[in-house]
Specification:
23% strand, Elongation Factor Tu (Ef-tu), domain 3, alpha+beta, 30 strands
């Protein structure tokens, strides 16, 4: 793609006016612009080393907060409108999970011209998260981070309405860098490049000073379609000022993490008793690029090269730097975790929840290495206090952040316990095959599918003689599999039927949806515009709601000139609504009368509106993190899936049910409104997308007082009082981190109450207790049953002891062992097994052959330790004896079992067991 850009693209007036010349870097061969005529290098690392460490070139030191304000204020003074940062979770997009740059806020709707920007031009400082560099965070001592602020100055240039382009963008950058920030003009160089991201692309210049890239100025003008670049109608100025990097440059500290995290990092060092040698780090930082995992080397090999460059022993260097790197990574990761959890991300195995879990477990790994695994909550609290002034949602969600971490810690410990046996098995299998190392893809699979990090694998595998060599980019490899994908949504788009018919209705006009104007309209009149495949009728207008948003399509009747015809389903293809019929279709041009099956529709409306109430109640009971993860509305009941890190308790279920029903009874108006997407987002935020990403320039917003607001296309009641009661039928956990609530509303809720009452009265009658005392009576029955069970166990033990003594007295001497035989026609298998165990415990030289004959013949064989030493194998003996009754069996040397259906031959087992046992002993 870079070949698409010519030299003329970058030859802007600013460079010519200010004495910049175009040169080719002797190191990386890229072209760059500089005011230094003798300059040979582009100014980027590793072509040149950092020269600002200890010699900051700015006129004064800036904190991250100060730098953010300097950047925003500068562009405000230059005609840009300041806007608030967007969330880091990109819930308005279905192609990515997290915001990786400020331009993500405006893709695809603004950049492709579907909606106007919130201002033009605008400026924003956007927290962004990029997992691609996760393994570099820490080892490169500040060059890489997961979470960072991208200062974005954006201008959207429409045909006939130009705001500004490359020349003015570079002028703004140079003015901020020199006049406001205090850099010398000649210290800056501008490196030519080509950028792509988020589905768009364009030429860019990377702005460099003293070896550090501080900004990237992108001139976005293409849409990436496969391998092709397609011109966009809107040309977008997409600048990325690295707020933290500018602050780092201004302070000249050895590590950017010192500048970003300040007292938080100092406290982490103190907690872990890590000595931070600033002089050593200052020497190491210029060669820290050796640790970049993109180089493809192992961590040890990279450290050796770093040590060679410094003239140091790599082991000594590693010993000093690893704790420092881990502490720095912990600072970065815990901030990222705090931001993710504050935006209602629940750690799980899907979407952004997977990335949160990955990060939490990597953080635990480093805390474990630092010896402060138990301090994660303390560190998160430090982060909330440190960043909460600029990002107040962190303080608002402090409690929920802590609760999510506690839950995740417990799950992680259980995961390690469950996974240990799996690692042992894999290690044993590899050793059996003569392999001495666990492959990288197996390590990735162990984490991706089972949550076991390489450190735990190493602790288990290496004592077994199997090596674990973790790839330097291990976590990046895992994260890469989960960074993008289609976000789950109730608004999944068109059904298969609709897609198959889309071309056939492409020329038809949009169907007027009468159900939005009046959801209580039961009948209507419409004109037949088309009949497709003799079973899909298209009308000019309709009250029939088409399937969508988790709500089934309406059914009913169309009254035609030839008589009534059933509507068995309703679908939507593009803007056209299709009525699927069972019968003779109307003629095109006919006027038909439509009637909805009203009881079904009103039940769906109650359940759809009830879904909003249950969700609002869940968020109030469980916490703000309880985000909708899916829903399906039904006639008899509906379900809503919500993100939550624990199972919902019975007490919480009752409270959700109570709040939802009380809200219904308050008879709150249910407002529905069509709003331009940008207006809806400005008014209500991204909670609009609880049900998933909704396409289009306009959003239909459903607002129920202060209880719930969501972009939703379904049919709803006009007041909550029309719902009636809400009854939660049950809950279930459909996957880790997602709870499903199944509920009934209105008449169906009444039926659920009545059914529960019927069952309760049935139990009351059966146990002969009043309804109001059934629970007490049943509890008494449970206690009595437990007592009886215990007594039966005692009697069973007593019987086994007596029977074992009898069988041992009557045992036969067979060679060097004793044969104890018994046949039983009553009792349970566990009692016979207990009897077997008792006999071989009493006499290690005993062999048991015990039969239980009921509908089939079961044989149980045991062998004491001494009998085993004489050649007896209980499992093999059981197999041979079970064959007598037409079956099979097997087991271990000390115990075997089997059986067959030929009960008449059971006595033959007793007769033949002595000879079969003898044959085993002679062998």
């Amino acid at each position: 793609m870079e070949n698409e850009i010519s030299e003329k693209e970058f030859a802007v007036p600013f460079f010519k006016e200010n004495g910049f010349t175009r040169k080719q870097c002797e190191c990386c061969k890229a072209y760059f612009w500089t005011q230094r005529p003798d300059e040979k290098y582009c100014g980027d690392s590793p072509c040149v080393q950092y020269s600002f460490i200890g010699k900051p070139p700015a006129k004064r030191p800036y904190s991250v907060h100060d730098m953010r304000e300097l950047f925003l204020s500068f562009f405000e003074k230059n005609g840009h409108t300041r806007i608030k940062p967007y969330p880091v979770v990109a819930r308005w997009r279905d192609d990515v999970f997290l915001v990786g740059a400020s331009i993500y806020d405006f893709q695809p709707y603004v950049t492709e011209g579907q909606i106007p920007p919130p201002a033009n031009p605008l400026v924003i400082s956007q927290p962004s998260i990029r997992f691609t560099d996760i393994d570099n965070v820490g080892p490169t001592l500040g060059r890489h981070d997961l979470i960072f602020e991208m200062g974005g100055a954006h201008a959207f240039n429409y045909p006939g309405k130009e705001i500004y382009w490359m020349d003015q963008t570079i002028r703004y950058h140079h003015q901020l860098a020199t006049e406001e920030f205090g850099l010398k003009s000649e210290s800056l160089s501008y490196k030519e490049h080509f950028w792509s991201g988020g589905g768009n692309a364009g030429p860019d210049v990377e702005c460099l000073c003293d070896g550090l890239e501080i900004s990237t100025l992108v001139f976005m003008q293409y849409k990436v379609q496969g391998e092709e670049l397609v011109k966009l109608p809107i040309r977008t100025v997409d600048t990325g000022y690295g707020i933290e990097r500018w602050a780092w440059l201004s302070q000249g500290k050895p590590s950017a993490f010192q500048v970003i995290y300040g007292s938080v990092l100092d406290k982490i060092f103190d907690m872990a008793s890590v000595k931070f040698d600033e002089k050593l780090v200052a020497k190491v930082v210029p060669v820290s690029s050796y640790m970049n995992t993109e180089r493809g080397e192992s961590r040890i090999d990279a450290r050796k090269k770093m040590a060679d460059a410094l003239g140091m022993d790599w082991r000594e260097l590693d010993k000093v730097l690893v704790p420092v790197e881990n502490a720095m990574a912990v600072a970065d990761h815990t901030k990222t975790i705090a931001f993710l959890l504050s935006e209602c991300v629940v750690p799980s195995n899907v979407e952004e929840g997977y990335l949160a879990r990955l990060l939490i477990r990597r953080t635990y790994r480093m805390l474990r290495q630092l010896g402060i695994e138990e301090r994660i909550l303390d560190i998160l609290d430090l982060q909330v206090n440190y960043w909460g002034g600029d990002f107040p949602q962190l303080k608002d969600m402090r409690r929920e952040i802590a609760e999510a971490i506690k839950s995740e810690e417990s799950k992680y410990r259980r995961t390690i316990e469950r996974g240990s046996d799996l690692v042992r098995k894999i290690s044993s299998d590899l050793k059996a095959k003569g392999q001495k190392e666990i492959p990288s893809n197996t390590l990735v699979e162990l984490y991706d599918s089972h949550g076991i990090v390489p450190d735990i694998v190493r602790e288990i595998a290496e004592p077994m003689g199997v090596q674990v060599n973790e790839p330097g980019n291990f976590f990046g490899m895992v994260a890469q599999k989960h960074l993008s994908g289609k976000r789950a949504s109730d608004e999944e788009g068109e059904t298969e039927v609709a897609v198959s018919l889309k071309d056939k209705v492409a020329e038809l006009p949009e169907t007027v949806p009468l159900y939005y104007k009046d959801p209580f309209q039961k009948q209507f009149q419409g004109k037949a515009l088309a009949v497709i495949d003799r079973k899909f009728v298209v009308l000019d207008q309709t009250c029939f709601y088409p399937e969508g948003g988790g709500q089934p399509g309406d059914i009913g009747v169309l009254q035609t000139s030839a008589g009534p015809v059933k509507v068995v389903d309703t679908q939507k293809a593009g803007r056209v609504i299709l009525h699927q019929i069972d019968g003779k279709p109307p003629r095109v041009g006919d006027i038909v009368q439509g009637s909805i099956e009203w009881d079904r529709r009103v039940s769906l409306m109650r359940h759809h509106t009830g879904t909003h109430l249950v969700l609002g109640a869940a968020r109030r009971v469980l916490g703000k993190h309880a985000w909708q993860a899916g829903a399906q509305k039904g006639v008899e009941s509906s379900r809503i899936d919500i993100s939550h890190y624990e199972r919902i308790t019975d007490e919480q279920v009752r409270e959700i049910e109570r709040l939802a029903t009380e809200t219904a009874l308050q008879d709150i108006p249910v407002e529905s409104m069509w709003l331009p997407r940008e207006k809806a987002e400005q008014a209500y935020g991204y909670i609009l997308y609880q049900g998933g990403v909704v396409p289009g320039r306009e959003l239909r917003v459903i607002k129920i007082g202060d209880w719930d607001v969501e972009a939703c296309g379904g049919t709803h009641c006009t007041r909550t009082g029309q719902i009636g009661a809400i009854k939660i039928l049950h809950t279930e956990r459909i996957q880790d981190g997602v709870e499903r609530i199944i509920f009934a509303a209105g008449t169906q809720a009444l039926r659920a109450f009545q059914e529960q009452e019927r069952v309760l009265k049935g139990i009351s009658s059966a146990v002969e207790a009043p309804v109001e005392k059934v629970d007490q009576y049943v509890q008494t029955l449970i206690e009595d049953r437990a007592k009886l069970t215990k007594r039966l166990e005692e009697l069973g033990i007593q019987w086994a002891g007596q029977e074992a003594e009898r069988l041992l007295r009557s045992s036969k001497k067979v060679g060097t062992v004793k044969l104890c035989q018994g046949k039983y026609t009553s009792g349970e298998e566990n009692e016979i097994v207990s009897l077997n165990n008792k006999i071989v415990e009493e006499d290690p030289n005993a062999v048991t052959v015990l039969l239980l004959v009921k509908d089939s013949a079961r044989v149980f064989v045991g062998a004491g330790k001494q009998a085993i030493s004489h050649g007896v194998h209980a499992g093999k003996l059981a197999g041979k004896l079970a064959a007598i009754v037409g079956g099979g069996g097997g087991g271990k040397d000390y115990f075997g079992q089997g059986g067959g259906t030929n009960t008449k031959a059971a006595d033959q087992i007793i007769k033949n067991s002595e000879s079969v046992l003898k044959s085993m002993l002679t062998k």
